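Example record

One chain of 154 residues, shown exactly as stored in the release files.
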Amino acid sequence: MMTLCCEVLQALKGKTLVTAESCTGGGIGAALTAVPGSSQVYKGGVISYTDWVKAHVLGVPEGLLQEKGAVSREVAAAMARGVRQRLEADVAVSVTGLAGPGGDDFGNPVGTVFIGYAQEGLTDTWEFHFSGNREQIREKTLEEALKLVKSHNP
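Predicted structure tokens for this chain:
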């Protein structure tokens, strides 16, 4: 994981990165800040574990949360855009998903994860279906989020 974090930070040299994390609970930020000098790129993040934080801190529309659910492509996109705007960064990545033990009221099973990415003029999202226990799903989410940031900043 340390190698991937170093690669992401190197790829973003001269830019700033922020995170909005739900199911990873700050794991992406923790992984990035384990790298000496990461503050040159990584500004910080928001652990938006509840809908209230998604709505009131990140600016995700409450209607969107009610209509689509927190674990959705649309919410992942809104989280990435919101944290990028609020923390004034060049690049943002967001994660929202179900690590277990149960699914949600919208029919999403455990392992469903959406990752959002935002930069000036671009917002993108990806859907994943991971298997494994809670910690394995969180680790896979963290790794995929970092890979997606790296792939957008070669």
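Notes: The radius of gyration is 14 Å.
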